Amino acid sequence: CAALSCWLTHLLDQWLGQKKTIFVSCFISFVTRIWSAVTNSWWHYFISRFFLGFGVSAEPATFPIYA
């Protein structure tokens, strides 16, 4: 998921710009972390952690100084 997100981040950078891409990736990270905290099944936890890979890997791919 993280490897795919790094390639998709370039498209998001061109479409939204860097600031909006970072905002979207932080929002995805926030929502999926809350989701994984309140879930009660392993399947939902697995899905939330999968989508967390999109949020976490998009930030350093967009602006490497955050890494």
Description of the molecule:
The chain contains 3 helices and no strands. The protein has 67 residues and is mostly helical. It is elongated, with a radius of gyration of 12 Å. It starts with a helix and ends in a 5-residue tail after the last helix.
Keywords:
mainly alpha; 85% helix
Please provide the count of β strands: 0
Low-confidence stretches: none
What is the overall pLDDT average?
81
Oligomer: single chain
Return the string of H and E elements.
Answer: HHH
Overall 3D form: elongated
The N- and C-terminal alpha carbons lie at a distance of: 18 Å
What's the tally of helices? 3
Summarize the main sheet: none
| Strand coverage percent | under 5%
Query: If you compute it from the alpha carbons, what radius of gyration comes out, rounded to the nearest whole angstrom?
Result: 12 Å
- Strand pairing plus helix content: what structural class? mainly alpha
Helix proportion: over 70%
Annotate the secondary structure layout:
Elements: H1 2-16, H2 18-38, H3 42-62
Helix pairs in contact: 1-2, 1-3, 2-3
Q: What's this model, at a glance?
A:
The protein has 67 residues and is mainly α. The chain is built from three helices and no strands.
